């Protein structure tokens, strides 16, 4: 199975080219959390979409791998991609801004990235990207209209909420959050395995 | 004789198409050609043998093992070729090898290089620039580089020009001379089979019609040609299918001896091609409906 993870890393080699771009963002003082989330999700989803063509699944399902291993490798790869981005941010920020990133930022970053992936992966195993694109366009339209109607200045509120989270003194809430995300990620992994087991090629 | 693949009472239903009570056995150490028209269930059967699809009921075993408990063990010993490109087309063959080789315990780089040289394949060009023939050779190279005992191919010769086809068949023939391998491949180009197949498995509309060796087919089947006055309802039942014209009839029998007994010298008997057998079987199925 680790050869499947290795395959994902090899195929995403070109994404490493994105890391200097990430450093450029750091130099412009953009939010570290925001950069981390965007880069991790983009690389993980890019890795997923490279394999989305159905003939590639015929190849991997004909090789000596089980369907469980194929799904599990994707979840491990996504975790590794997020870790690579976190390390790049840590090093980049240290050398560019001369600052050490607070560990809470990374916990929050992992929490948000892995939660998003937990939702996207099972959906991507179930539906085609065209179907997902249509549904997400419609849903985000509805969301934006609804949120603007009911919650004024919602972006400021999210920002304030994240600021409040980062400013919290106790560590307990972070451990609880990490645990909840871990359970969500594991649940998503089980659901994806169930969906993929039934998939017809 | 040991069976390397066994399907027993397999059922698989799709919208508008069924594989019904399907049982076949593929013998170890031989080339078995899997024939049938388009859309009769050849690819579905191959997908079930590769565990890409699971039957609704019935059992599939390969090397005497079932997929539920021995999936990886079985696949380690199979080399596969499909009629479409299943490799990453934005990678080179060298990069693709680097991905595939780690899946196999018995991957042999020397063997890989041997086939790359034999097929004159470029290692550094992107696979999307390959012609259909090169693509097939690249797939075959992957299938043959890990000492697979069983080679399964779905329409490997379709879309290939006659020279490529002949080369491919030569290689498969050579492969059978070298070692104790088994080849199972589907095709609707029946002339390919005369060159290398030992056994023929014939499928029609999701049903297994027969599995026989080529000599058996020659001994049992015949095209019978004669005048219309020789036919009556009872005699027509003896044939798999009959084609009538103003000049006489042409029919396929699966019991050559019986036809000789009934007609003697009054008819002309000819050796049928596999294509004749496929054609008349389809026609017979329609007539009986």
TrEMBL record, chain A:
Keyword DNA-binding tagged: no
InterPro entries: ABC2_memb-like
Annotated keywords: Membrane, Transmembrane, Transmembrane helix
Transmembrane segments: 16-43, 75-96, 105-125, 131-151, 172-196
Listed name of the protein: ABC-2 transporter permease
Organism (species): Cytobacillus gottheilii
TrEMBL record, chain B:
Alphabetical UniProt keywords: ATP-binding, Nucleotide-binding, Transport
Classification via SUPFAM superfamilies: P-loop containing nucleoside triphosphate hydrolases
Lineage: Bacteria, Bacillati, Bacillota, Bacilli, Bacillales
PROSITE patterns, sorted: ABC_TRANSPORTER_2 (PS50893)
InterPro entries xref list: AAA+_ATPase (IPR003593), ABC_transporter-like_ATP-bd (IPR003439), ABC_Transporter_VariousFunc (IPR051782), P-loop_NTPase (IPR027417)
CDD domains in the record: ABC_DR_subfamily_A
Name of this chain's protein: ABC transporter ATP-binding protein
Domain ABC transporter: 5-230
GO molecular-function term, one example from the UniProt record: ATP binding
């Amino acid at each position: 199975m680790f050869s499947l993870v290795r395959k994902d890393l090899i195929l995403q080699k070109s994404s490493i080219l994105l890391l200097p771009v990430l450093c450029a963002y750091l130099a412009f003082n953009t939010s570290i959390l925001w950069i981390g989330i965007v880069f991790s999700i983009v690389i993980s989803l890019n890795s997923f979409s490279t394999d989305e063509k159905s003939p590639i699944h015929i190849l991997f399902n004909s090789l000596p791998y089980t369907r469980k291993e194929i799904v599990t490798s994707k979840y491990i790869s996504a975790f590794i991609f997020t870790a690579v981005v976190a390390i790049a941010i840590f090093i980049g920020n240290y050398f560019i801004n001369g600052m050490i990133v607070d560990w809470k930022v990374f916990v929050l970053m992992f929490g948000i990235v892995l939660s998003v992936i937990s939702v996207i992966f099972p959906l991507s195993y179930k539906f085609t990207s065209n179907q997902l694109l249509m549904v997400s366009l419609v849903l985000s339209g509805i969301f934006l209209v609804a949120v603007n109607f009911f919650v004024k200045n919602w972006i400021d509120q999210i920002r304030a909420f994240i600021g409040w989270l980062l400013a919290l003194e106790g560590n307990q809430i972070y451990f609880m959050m990490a645990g909840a995300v871990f359970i969500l990620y594991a649940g998503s992994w089980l659901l994806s395995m169930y969906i993929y087991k039934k998939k017809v090629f | 004789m040991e069976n390397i693949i066994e399907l027993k009472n397999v059922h698989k239903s799709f919208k508008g198409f069924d594989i019904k009570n399907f049982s076949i056995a593929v013998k170890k150490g031989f080339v078995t050609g899997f024939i049938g028209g388009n859309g009769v269930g050849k690819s579905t059967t191959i997908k079930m043998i590769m565990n890409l699809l699971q039957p609704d009921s019935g059992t599939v075993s390969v090397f005497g093992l079932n997929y539920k408990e021995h999936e990886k063990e079985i696949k380690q010993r199979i080399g596969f070729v499909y009629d479409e490109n299943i490799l990453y087309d934005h990678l080179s063959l060298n990069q693709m090898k680097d991905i595939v080789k780690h899946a196999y315990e018995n991957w042999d780089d020397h063997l890989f290089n041997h086939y790359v040289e034999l097929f004159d394949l470029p290692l550094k060009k992107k696979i999307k620039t390959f012609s259909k023939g090169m693509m097939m050779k690249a797939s075959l190279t992957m299938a043959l580089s890990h000492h697979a005992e069983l080679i399964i191919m779905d329409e490997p010769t379709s879309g290939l020009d006659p020279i490529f086809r002949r080369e491919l068949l030569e290689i498969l023939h050579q492969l059978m001379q070298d070692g104790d391998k088994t080849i199972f491949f589907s095709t609707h180009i029946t002339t390919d089979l005369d060159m290398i197949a030992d056994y023929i498995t014939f499928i029609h509309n999701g049903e297994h019609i027969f599995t026989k060796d080529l000599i058996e087919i020659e001994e049992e089947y015949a095209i019978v040609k004669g005048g219309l006055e020789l036919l009556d309802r009872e005699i027509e039942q003896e044939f798999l299918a009959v084609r009538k014209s103003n000049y006489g009839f042409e029919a396929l029998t699966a019991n050559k001896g019986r036809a000789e007994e009934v007609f003697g010298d009054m008819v002309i008997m000819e050796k049928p091609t596999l294509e004749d057998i496929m054609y008349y079987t389809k026609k017979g199925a329609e007539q009986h409906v």
